[in-house]
Design a protein that fits this description.
By secondary structure, the protein is mainly α. It contains seven helices and no strands.
Amino acid sequence: MTFSPSTASPSTAPAARVRHPASVVQVRRRSLTERLLAGNAWLIFLFFYAPIVVLVIFSFNSGRFVSRWEGFSLAWYAKLFQNQAIALALRNSLIVAFASTIVSTILATLVAVGLERYRFRGKTALDSVLYLPIIIPDIAMAVMLLLFFIQAGQILGKIGMGFSLGLGTVILAHIAFNISFVTVTVRARLADF
């Protein structure tokens, strides 16, 4: 039995259900505390990111000083890319990033599959050691790896297999640091299967 608004009297019509479209969302008013916290968060973001925005804008200034805008220019970027030391640093950074990403991904995936699929002696110890680079501050990890490479170079130098610090040790250090993050991520994905 259907009722139309024109034929049904108010006393005989069933209680009409008001249906809101799915796009209508009821907005709850924020309390004063929530608004103050949101305002505080925005002020903190502004405090941290405003200098970066100003720096990017004034990097296109033709003048030498940031106190006054003198005109738009790309001269500073041209000087940046003409600097040989910066070009070498960029090249080395890309080499380290590419090599450590590839090797870390392959090794960490193998470790994650091994830890997830197989049981073996020392599994708990390996699992614990893999979390160390995540827990230890980056600078402490860097100092430890530097000391390790110096000691290893001295010991291997005594038997005629010495090596020096360079791009290879930087790549090895990045692999040692990245392997934990990749392993944890891959293991989390493998746990879903």
